[in-house]
UniProtKB/TrEMBL annotation, chains A, B:
Protein name: NADH:ubiquinone reductase (non-electrogenic)
Pfam families, alphabetized: NDH2_C, Pyr_redox_2
Ranges where the External alternative NADH-ubiquinone oxidoreductase-like C-terminal domain occurs: 415-481
Cellular localization per UniProt: Mitochondrion inner membrane; Peroxisome
Length: 485, 485
């Protein structure tokens, strides 16, 4: 209960009045019966058990989709009320797809969230977990549009699923957070798009030197994983098809450089890597082997001293554990993720599970930490939904009641292969089960067709499937939209 | 030339170095031959004459669409690289239409802007006009994403068309700019949407009082013109169809109030006004006759002392001359707009025209100042394009050469009628030519169908026609999207 003291000291009635002009103490404790407006207290015998899900990424959303609302009330806490279909995010930066086509509201993924009287979505961040008392501490997100301090509340859980994801790695390089843009959220894609269009227009303003023009229109991507490669490919498509037509004054100044310390697409088959390298080079993407040492406002410095001026810098060098994961007093896997056992449980505590990029098998399981892939997260979410439904049916849904339930089969991950598009209607499909295994790998237009078809069936709702198809068709017919809104 | 001195004093080489790291003096003057990168100097005999268009609203865009790029080079200066299809903007706030469906890039309206070597679009604001020297002074727009001062440059024109539009009227009421949102640009619609969705989610957070919940979900619209009424109608559709389903916990708290000092839709036929009042009331919109005295962060105060708490405040009480129009040393019409004669020329100066909301007939023409309507702006743009093409063909395109050209027929405005949607698949169509005239007026579903069809054929490009139709169809089938991106 130690965090409650800390909480109560910050949350004085004076602050409450200042915030919302009323006097409720604002927090339930497990000893007193919960105030109606003071958070969600422990569930009673007349209620369904409550699953609290932290996060709305692939893992959390797939879990919520699979949970049976007849068995559980579902409470989701996330600063984002939608899931981002990340594999298609790179396409939205240049207008091939619309932003909204790759965002799926949680209420469409699990309608119970908005329909059931005791299921909720809270636009908030989890700030602490009190495993002893089965409670999470949350702070509402206001994003500065309401001039109030964040609103704090606690939620009691019967089962807690941590699906908080990861954060981009910067390797401690100075200036990355200030000057580079990541590519993980819709607002990142919006920022990239706005900056790209601004630079295209700025470079056409009279009085700009040749040198400045070149800088403004130099797009640098750091990180040669699938995200970096797909974004580079989309960008070169945009340049070849749309910039040439819509910004013909500056078309010869725009260039894309992809910087990677090792090899691009290192998880793919060597033949596919070579194909990707050849195709990207052919599309005008300059591939540079290098390590970034420092990022300044208008240029990056490589380890060998090379200075690279840029107008747009996109950073996608993979992900690592986020600060909230670091701060949690839970066992860790190799690499610092939340440690889980074969059933995705956090072993030292009761009723807490962790899935997706924030979790990894603890060493004693003898299993390797799985890669931070949508595929892994999705499979874990699906598995855990089935497991939790099973536990609920066996009367183990309530807090501290699952000890004697048979959990059944362990979670086993089977890699279905990797896909990446590289622009110019070409893609790579690697169907090998691991880096070392042998198996089918494809490159070219057929792969691109498979890639599109596969994503189209995986975009969750029919609405978005329809919109993605429409977006692709209109891009093909009319080109990409260039309004800077 | 007085503004040049002012300019040069601010634009020292030291500043230039700080900005872009080079030394060009940055400005052409009419005496020295223009530097290639220092603005656009006067056109030479080997070039086409240059039409400079200030603004990308209905008037400016319709003009550019009609100008013949074989006769003129077209240079457009505006802080916005697209035109907003304003009649459909209210629908984007609640997700009935996508933002991009109502935005049309200038390069699609007049492709010469990006294809012709001497036609340009500059993302900039006009800050002064030097009519004696046929030059405009501009400042580039950077919007803070590039940490540089705005870049300044001048453009010489052969013909100048001022189509700078108007700005919202606030009647000097304190707090409007700080707390209310206008509904004139795509970013306004985006802000309204984000705030509406934030308030819906905030009101569901545990710990919020009943009173605060009601405030957060009270949407107040000030101004009962077509924009205010259409937005209220869209909002009540959104509440009745989507909020009830997606935000069922708070559905009984959300309300819409429309405040108007006089009568709603005062330019429409009295029968239509009564119909609109009845329909809006039926859809749950509270119509309040009142005058706003003061706007605070969370409530507005009416003249009679009533306090109205709100969570979202949209202000649409019409428009008036903008500050740049005030500052221009040009003749004015009654009401302070730029004065024009029967051929849309600014009479005291050579080669300057003004169209759209920024312009009005001078008193000596004996004509009334036309209403600030898209219809008027569009018609003026169309007329002026034909006139300028005619002047160009008669060898009057170059600066100071149109004195002896026969301008032909005067501009005559014929009102084609007004339309407004009021939600619930109902609209008003008033085909009378003026407020006093008799003529056809329609209300109900048929009007709504006419309204949709009319707008669909008027949305400029085929791409956007297609998208508006698709958006309407998906809203009908799947409901509105609620992702807060």
């Amino acid at each position: 209960m130690s965090y409650f003291r800390h909480l109560c000291s910050r949350f004085s009635p004076t602050n409450a009045r200042r915030r919302f002009g009323y006097l409720s103490s604002g927090f339930s404790t497990s000893s007193a019966p919960p105030d109606r407006y003071a958070g969600l207290g422990p569930t009673g015998a007349h209620q369904k058990p409550r699953v609290v899900v932290l996060g709305t990424g692939w893992a959390g959303c797939r879990l919520m989709k699979g949970l049976d609302p007849a068995i559980y009330d579902i409470v989701c806490v996330s600063p984002r009320n939608h899931m981002v279909f990340t594999p298609l995010l790179a396409s939205t930066c240049v207008g091939t797809l619309e932003f909204r086509s790759v965002a799926e509201p949680i209420a469409r993924i699990q309608p119970a969230i908005s329909r059931e009287p005791a299921s909720f979505f809270f636009l908030a961040n989890c700030t602490a977990i009190d495993a002893d008392n089965h409670q999470v501490k949350c702070e509402s997100v206001t994003e500065g549009t309401e001039k109030v301090d964040p609103w704090k509340f606690t939620i009691s859980y019967d089962k807690l699923v941590i699906a908080l994801g990861a954060q981009p790695t910067t390797f401690g390089i100075h200036g990355v957070y200030e000057h580079a843009i990541f590519l993980r959220e819709v607002y990142h894609a919006q920022e990239i798009r706005r900056k790209l269009l601004l630079n295209l227009m700025m470079s056409d303003v009279p009085g700009i030197t040749e040198e400045e023009k070149k800088r403004l229109l130099h797009c640098v991507v750091v990180g040669g994983g699938p995200t970096g490669v797909e974004f580079s490919g989309e960008l070169s498509d945009f340049i070849m098809r749309d910039v040439r037509q819509r910004y013909s004054h500056v078309k010869d100044y725009i260039h894309v450089t992809l910087i990677e310390a090792n090899e691009i697409l290192s998880s793919f088959d060597v033949r596919l890597r070579q194909y990707a390298t050849k195709q990207l080079t052919k599309s005008g993407v300059r591939l540079v082997r290098g390590i970034v040492k420092d990022v300044e406002e208008k240029r990056i410095i490589l380890n060998d001293g090379t200075e690279v001026p840029y107008g747009l810098l996109v950073w996608s060098t993979g992900v690592g554990p986020s600060s909230i994961v670091h701060s949690l007093d839970l066992p860790k896997s190799p690499g610092g993720r939340i440690g889980i056992d074969e059933w995705l449980r956090v072993p030292t505590v009761e009723d807490i599970f962790a899935i997706g990029d924030c979790s990894g098998f603890i060493e004693s399981t003898g299993k390797p930490v799985l890669p931070a892939l949508a595929q892994v997260a999705e499979r874990q979410g699906k598995y855990l939904a089935i497991l939790l439904n099973k536990i609920g049916k066996a009367n183990g849904g309530r807090a501290n009641t699952a000890k004697n339930v048979d959990f059944g089969e362990q979670f086993v991950y089977k890699h279905l292969g990797s896909m990446a598009t590289i622009g110019s209607y070409k893609a790579l499909v690697d169907l090998r089960q691991s880096k070392e295994a042998k198996g089918l790998s494809l490159a070219g237009f057929i792969s691109w067709f498979i890639w599109r078809s596969a994503y189209l069936t995986r975009v969750i709702s029919w609405r978005n499937r329809f919109y993605v198809a429409i977006n692709w068709a209109t891009t093909f017919v009319f080109g990409r939209d260039i309004s800077r809104i």
